[in-house]
Amino acid sequence: MNVEYLAIAKLFLPEIVLTVGALLLLGIDLCLGKRDTRRALVLLGAVISLAAACVALLQWDWRPAEAQYVRQAAVTSAVQRMAPAVGRDALTHAARISERDARAVTTAYKAARHDSLVESAATPPADGAPVMGIAPYDAGLSSPSFSAWWLFTADNFALIFKAIFALALALALLLSTRFPVARYRGEFAALLMFAAVGLMVMVGSLDLVGIFLGLELASLCCYALAAWHKQDARSAEAGTKYLLLGSLASAIFIYGASLFFVEYGSTHLHVLAHGAAQSPLTLVALLMVLVSFLFKVAGAPFHLWAPDVYQGAPTAMVAFLSTAGKAAGFAVLVRVLSAHGFQAFSEKWLLLFIGVAALSILIGNLVAIHQNNVKRLLAYSGVAQAGYVLIGLVAMADPAGGTLLNEALPLTAVIFYLAAYMVMNIGAFAVVGIVGRESGGEELSAFAGLRARAPVLAFAFTLLLLSLGGIPLLSGFVGKWYLFLAGVYQGQYLLVLIGTTMSVVSMYYYLLVIKQMYILPAADGAQPIRVGALAAAGLAAITLVTVAIGIYPGPLYTLAQAAAKSLMP
Amino acid sequence: MFSITGLLTISGILFVAGAAALITRRNAVAALMGVELMLNAANLNFVAGWRYFWPERLDAHVAVLLVITVAAAEAAVGLAIILNLYRKFGTVDLEQIRLMRG
Amino acid sequence: MIELSAYNIILLLLAAVTLLGAVRVIATRSVIHAAFWLFPVFAGIAGFYLLLGAQFLAAIQVLIYIGAILVLIIFAVTLTRNAMDSDDAPANRFGVPVFLAAIMLLAAVIGAAGHTRWPAAFATIDHIALAPGLEVTGVPALGVTLLQHYLLPFEIASVLLLAGMIGAIVLARRERPSADDDAPADAATAADAPQREKVGV
């Protein structure tokens, strides 16, 4: 085995585990494909994704943040050294990299790869030479492992999101064992795993084209999964709507990336970070990239696809999409915005984000009140939650237009909330899925008298809804607390005021569901609900984690903080 | 002399035409054609940027190849989904497909 | 003004054909005609690639866009034709606002491009002859780049194609009631036997 390939594998372990697992699943499904093995298959998929989550956490870089900066400094220094002292205006074919610079890049690369840095490679660049988008292979460095290092990263920020995706995948698979995913269970699980691989590529990529590939891998799987119920016309409608609006967002993203390429000759985030200047074309391209990801996280007014897709698509897929997909969108937004060149535009994108955050919180919560279908209600509540997270993103920027990310709290709050939201939202969708399967619908009335039909289910759902609404001692409260704290800290008083007010409003519609379960009587002839053993185990774990994070948020906060710090300059 | 602005204009027109087709066409297949127009516009940008400013790089070529791959996969999945829609509804007119609202 | 060399005339003609095709794709009533209008767009883009010196991409464009995607789209149009569909309005109620938004977006892109200070060195091209340095962009170099520097995106693209294939096959397969079903819902509706059942409206 070549050392180079081992270095690549180290960067991609969770993805490799998941891809191999998905192929294994497909193979077993093709060979056996009988009724009784299907459930075992999905269980196997869940185990594989748990393993991927463990791998992601095992790769965690426990060194203090200062030691991690060294690697980043090496990357930065490599980029800067690769910039010959030629401005873009003087670009000719003679602009080649000098031998000394090439040597410096090689040193930096080797040092960064072996995590033992030679002092010389990390020295800051001399007198801010103009930086151009020279890709490393111009310096004769074109080995696969170099490109892996150049195009992808496995810093703590990427790793915590990889762990979140793998855990969400495991939970969604566990809870899908009894959802009526009709036929093609093996393919369903495999596509869900491929979608998770796509999301992992997205958060680990440093190049916009790499992000596009990951995004498309995840989106393609999700389009197909949304239309998976071939007996259900609503699923076909959900799939079509998601396909059309999702590919609109992807196309806007790649067009923005191509505008960046025209201007900077690269779509690599480090190149953009150091080269981006105040030009109108950069602004247009940046806005396109940001808007396409606001689509993906379903922030208003780009949320129009969400309610229909959530209502029509299979519940297991919605549980995954609404948590992992949203988290991935935010992760990419953070990664793009943390490229320093874009700080020049901070007041412009800040305005966009403040508007979207306020609109999301208002529209999400006010429209959710009128919903009759619980999946739709959760969709609008998801729009509102995206608004809360956006408060954290807004707080990342200094209102004075200064530096970004100089404070770990906002980003920590964002990561913390996304992790907590993943757990509670998947749990909520799991309950909706189980009740929907047994009662044949997800209307509010289907939940009437759930206390008598399935007391444990009703109790778990109550806890999860209260957590989503932000009741103290549950994880949702702690997450919102950090987000609002970050907002206040950065002086976004109006946004925080809207957020807190609307949190109170949101309790109203969560309590409507709870009222159905505990106060209204069950419909005539309603049967007690059976909960499968696997789903029960998953739900118990989810509820426990929600309460545990709410009471003792320390460990998760520490992890989130370490992840946030790994992204800081 | 044909400047970069000319090519950006052409790709811009293609892009907004694709977006307009995607949003306004009532036929789902016609809406999907809009996606192809938009991806083509992005590809044209990559090639134009390469030719005018960065002729020593191959990033643009790789990006175009990857985008074409994605477009092909997306067209296949998209048309399968739309075929499925047609089987259920008997039409691909997006105005008539409204089971969910609220 | 644009100098009327043969190269520029060909470029202008290509632009005219491409943009005419694009406009017809939006505005044509009949969907099958719109699909056929995609042909000049894809071919025009291939022509641009050729004139800009990216011959390999031009070949790929013809092979995949015209040879595969366009044929796929035309198949899809013929498979989903419905006599009941009215031909009177191709656009939905968003027509006018979207048109205005599109004009604004276009103005933004073009205005931004016009206000950007472009480097002088390669600002104009008026011949097919390759600029110095272009000789590295032959197909062999592209192959090396793709499999060396861009090996990982290449692998991810192959996973993407596999996932797309699985999804498309499962979705497009026609359902038959079979012993393989394990959900009771399947047996009840006997797959999607009422093929043309109109559920909507």
How would you characterize this protein structure?
- The complex is a heterotrimer of chains A (569), B (102) and C (201).
- With 569 residues, chain A is an all-alpha fold.
- Chain A contains 23 helices and no strands.
- Chain A has helices spanning 3-11, 13-31, 37-58, 65-81, 99-113, 144-151, 156-176, 185-204, 208-226, 233-264, 269-275, 280-296, 305-312, 315-337, 346-368, 374-396, 408-439, 450-453, 455-469, 475-489, 493-518, 533-551, 554-565.
- The radius of gyration of chain A is 24 Å and the shape is globular.
- Chain B has helices at 4-24, 28-52, 59-89, and one strand at residues 2-3.
- The radius of gyration of chain B is 17 Å and the shape is elongated.
- Chain C is mainly alpha-helical and 201 residues long.
- Chain C has helices at residues 6-27, 31-52, 55-79, 95-115, 139-147, 151-172, 184-189, and one strand at residues 124-125.
- Classes of the chains: A mainly alpha (569), B mainly alpha (102), C mainly alpha (201).
- Chains in contact: A-B, A-C, B-C.
- At the B-C interface, strand 1, helix 1, helix 2 and helix 3 of B face helix 1, helix 2, helix 3, helix 4 and strand 1 of C.
